């Protein structure tokens, strides 16, 4: 198994407001949409994104406008050529000042209308504003690293260790540099985290849903929502801390991004 990260799903209170925010500020465009009976899913991303670049999935559930962010999920990060220029471009667009680059040399943060944090990082690859990584917080670094190494065959490609915390970056083996990475943040003080419901899941793009699911079961991944319970269209497992991980086959040449 060597699946890249396909998308990160977040829940939003007002779909059109969120779409407008990402379109106006990050130049994202709608890639595909699915209308359910009481929910809507929209995939968005840069116009010229790499075929192995990750999408952002916005999910809106009818009648739900108050989502809890929790703290088990951290942020998504987007790529730009110059952090300072990009941040103040967003300020000129009317985005609220949150964590400017002067406070964080080399990066900055803004928030979307629902409070999801978006890190801005400087990269020399990938489309402007494309997803660079998604950060999640873990309660045991050894368990988390072991999970992604054993279950999904991800490699540690970078780390940064401070006095009170560490960041670990993971990717599939031989992933293109345009693919999204996973950042695990581990705080040394033994704190625990709450999931909330404003964040949904990470999604791993795999080659064969049933075969890869069976492999995960052999590797003792949690059996959360197996393919049969999802009409053999997708499946879900969880990591050691409860972050949901979707498995999906993706035909990038198909008319629809959805496996329906």
Structural account:
- This protein is α/β, with parallel strands linked by helices.
- It has one domain (4-249): 2,3-Dihydroxybiphenyl 1,2-Dioxygenase, domain 1 (Roll).
- 17% of the residues lie in helices and 38% in strands.
- The chain contains four helices and 14 strands.
- The strands form two sheets. A seven-stranded mixed sheet has the order 2-3-4-1-12-14-13. Strands 6-7-5-8-11-10-9 form a seven-stranded mixed sheet.
- Strand 3 and strand 4 (55-61) form a beta hairpin.
- The radius of gyration is 18 Å and the shape is globular.
- The mean pLDDT is 96.
Structure keywords:
260 residues; 2,3-Dihydroxybiphenyl 1,2-Dioxygenase, domain 1; 7-stranded mixed sheet; globular
Low-confidence stretches: none
Distance between the first and last residues' Cα: 23 Å
Percentage of residues in DSSP E strands:
35-45%
The count of DSSP E runs of length 2 or more, i.e. the number of strands, is: 14
Q: What number is the mean pLDDT? A: 96
Remind me, CATH topology? 2,3-Dihydroxybiphenyl 1,2-Dioxygenase, domain 1
The main sheet comes to: 7 strands, mixed
CATH superfamily: 2,3-Dihydroxybiphenyl 1,2-Dioxygenase, domain 1
Order of H and E elements = EHEEEEHEEEHEEEEHEE
> How would you classify the helix and strand content by structural class?
alpha/beta
Question: Order of strands across the widest beta sheet?
Answer: 2-3-4-1-12-14-13
The helix tally amounts to: 4
CATH architecture: Roll
Question: What level of helicity do the residues show?
Answer: 10-25%
What is the radius of gyration?
18 Å
| Inertia-based shape | globular
Total domain modules = 1
């Amino acid at each position: 198994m060597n699946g890249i990260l396909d998308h990160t799903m977040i829940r939003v209170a007002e779909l059109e407001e969120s779409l407008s925010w990402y379109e106006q500020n990050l130049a994202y465009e709608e890639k595909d949409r699915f209308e359910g009976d009481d929910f809507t899913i929209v995939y968005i991303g840069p116009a010229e994104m790499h075929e192995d670049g990750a999408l952002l999935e916005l999910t809106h559930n009818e009648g739900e406008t108050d989502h809890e962010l929790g703290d088990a999920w951290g942020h998504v990060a987007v790529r730009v050529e110059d952090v300072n220029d990009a941040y103040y471009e967003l300020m000129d667009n009317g985005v609220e000042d949150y964590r400017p680059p002067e406070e964080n040399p080399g990066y900055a943060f803004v928030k979307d209308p629902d409070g999801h944090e978006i890190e801005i990082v400087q990269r020399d690859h990938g489309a402007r504003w494309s997803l660079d990584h998604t950060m999640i917080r873990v309660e045991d670094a050894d368990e988390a690293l072991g999970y992604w190494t054993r279950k999904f065959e991800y490699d540690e490609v970078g780390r940064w260790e401070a006095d009170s915390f560490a960041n670990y970056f993971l990717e599939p083996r031989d992933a293109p540099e345009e693919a999204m990475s996973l950042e695990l943040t581990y705080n040394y003080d033994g704190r625990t985290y709450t999931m909330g419901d404003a964040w949904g899941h990470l999604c791993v793009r795999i080659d064969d849903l049933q075969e890869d699911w069976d492999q995960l079961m052999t590797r003792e991944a949690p059996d959360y929502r197996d393919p049969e319970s999802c009409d053999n269209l997708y499946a879900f497992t969880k990591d050691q801390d409860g972050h949901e991980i979707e498995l999906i086959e993706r035909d990038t040449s198909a008319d629809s991004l959805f496996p329906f």
